[in-house]
Design brief:
elongated, 48% helix, 3-stranded antiparallel β-sheet, 21 helices, 493 residues, mainly alpha, two-stranded parallel ribbon
């Protein structure tokens, strides 16, 4: 078996979309499973749409996901350069080879003439396609057009009869009638190659063994197959992975939530969770596993497991999965990922003391079981860092509306003030003893106490919360709540 060589070839026109990320992932998994080579190639010849900073953004997103490449613009390799803008001489050489063999021709039609040809075809009820006007120009006619200063494009000669069959590893054989294809441009008049031509030249010269890409490229594949044959190059194996659709089966867009890798990173998702989710978006390991470390995914991955049917994007499932990773990953890893989010909120800074960082670690350990993202983690931790929070309105009506609650909180405060050592077993025992002494239910004391020290009616275990906050803060917050209740108590009759 020949060496497996696959590539991911994004255009630097924006952030890395999750559809592109999944394509990169499937290529990477296939290479790693088969001890192959994963190549990063940048298709950056569309000068009007290229965004200078997008190349760096794409590579950073791939690195964050853990998708390392063996050859690429930054690593080099035996078949470089790996930016198409640096390969223009190669495309011109290959186009000239087709011209010399009579397999391509120069086209002098202006944009206006091409538009008129398309309109004429439309009026006849035909698909818009090139008329072939320049296909059989004589030498004298070409010379006259050249002397007129017209820069020609180069078109490839497509067979007008027969069929082209694409053998797809996921979809089986897909056949296209050649007469539905026109003589498409391979080199524009400005000397820049078109996508189909540059793609075939690069894949051939870089010895790509398998082209694994999105389903929407299937319509380009017959053109590319014909180009491979005209150039005398070996065909790679093709595999077109299913589209990713929104829950309503429409095209995925911003209105369906985050759609780029960078948005998920900024939203507090873990790369392991996103890789896990994307791997299962259109591929199945053959069982019901939902949480799979990347090593297991590599070991199980095969193109036979890729579905033919569209995959449905489910942000809720991804968020749930991220919560599973947030709780399963080592706490130190979670803290390292969470620190920038705490810093952005102003809860900690680069100059904070080791004690402050230790406090953040305690807080994260206390609240992480109830959240799904690092953003939610910081949101859930707000009352650990802010004293002047407001009390939950429904909680006030339920727990602070009775005047005797102030006395109950005062008793809890008095017990807490005397509690030593201030650790979880001792604090819990002190409160349990007070509940027994007062002859009340545990909730009668626990619920108003939680509201008093956090402003919320739900959260981590109360005694964990008390110990992490510390005695001083708890006493201050209990006193604040007592005053609030007494200040807002209805007047006695």
């Amino acid at each position: 078996m020949n060496k497996i060589r696959v590539r991911f070839a994004p255009s630097p026109t924006g952030n890395l979309h999750i559809g592109g990320a999944r394509t990169a992932l499937f290529n990477w998994l296939f290479a790693r499973k088969n001890n192959g080579v994963f190549i990063l190639r940048l298709e950056n010849t569309d000068l009007e749409r290229n965004i200078p900073e997008a190349e760096e953004g794409i590579t950073k997103s791939l690195q964050w996901l853990g998708l390392d490449w063996d050859e690429g613009p930054d690593r080099g390799g035996p078949y470089g350069p790996y930016r198409q803008s640096e390969r223009l001489a190669i495309y011109r050489r290959e186009a000239e080879r087709l011209l010399a063999a009579g397999l391509a021709y120069r086209c002098y039609c202006s944009p206006g003439e091409l538009a008129a040809q398309r309109e004429e075809a439309r009026k006849k009820g035909l698909a818009p396609r090139y008329s072939g006007r320049c296909r059989e120009l004589t030498g004298a006619e070409r010379a006259r057009l050249e002397n007129a200063g017209i820069n020609p494009a180069i078109r490839v000669k497509i067979p007008q009869e027969g069929v082209t069959t694409v053998k797809d590893l996921i979809r089986g054989e897909v056949t296209f009638e050649n007469n539905t294809l026109d003589d498409f441009v391979i080199m524009k008049s400005n000397g820049v190659p078109t996508y189909n031509f540059a793609c075939v030249v690069d894949d051939s010269l870089m010895q790509i063994s398998h082209v694994i890409r999105a389903e929407e490229h299937l319509s380009n594949t017959p053109k590319q197959v014909l180009l491979y044959k005209l150039l005398g190059c070996r065909l790679p194996a093709f595999a077109h992975v299913p589209m990713i659709l929104a829950p309503d089966r429409s095209k995925l867009s911003k209105r369906h939530g985050a759609t780029s890798v960078e948005e998920f990173r900024e939203g507090g998702y873990f790369p392991e969770a996103l890789v896990n989710y994307l791997a299962l978006l259109g591929w199945s390991p053959g069982d019901e596993r939902e949480m799979m470390p990347v090593e297991e995914i590599i070991a199980s991955f095969s193109l036979e497991g890729v579905s033919k049917h569209a995959a449905i994007y489910d942000l809720k499932k991804l968020t749930w999965l991220n919560g599973q990773y947030l709780n399963a990953l080592p706490l130190e890893r979670v803290i390292n990922e969470a620190i920038p989010f705490f810093q952005a909120r102003g809860y900690i800074s680069e100059n904070s003391s080791p004690e402050d960082y230790a406090y953040v670690q305690q807080v994260a350990a206390t609240v992480r079981s109830r959240v799904h993202t690092l953003v939610e983690l910081v949101d859930a931790a707000d009352y650990f860092f802010q004293d002047n929070f407001t009390y939950d309105e429904k909680g006030v009506k339920k727990f602070f509306s009775r005047p005797e609650t102030a006395d109950l909180l005062q008793r809890g405060k008095d017990v807490l003030a005397k509690t030593e050592p201030f650790d979880l077993p001792t604090v819990e025992a002190a409160y349990r003893n007070l509940v027994a002494e007062l002859g009340i239910s545990g909730g009668a004391l626990i619920h108003p106490t939680r509201l008093a020290i956090s402003g919320k009616t739900m959260g981590p275990g109360l005694f964990d919360l008390i110990v992490v906050l510390g005695k001083k803060k708890c006493l201050e917050r209990l006193d604040r709540a007592i005053q609030f209740i007494r200040r807002n108590a209805p007047p006695e009759p």
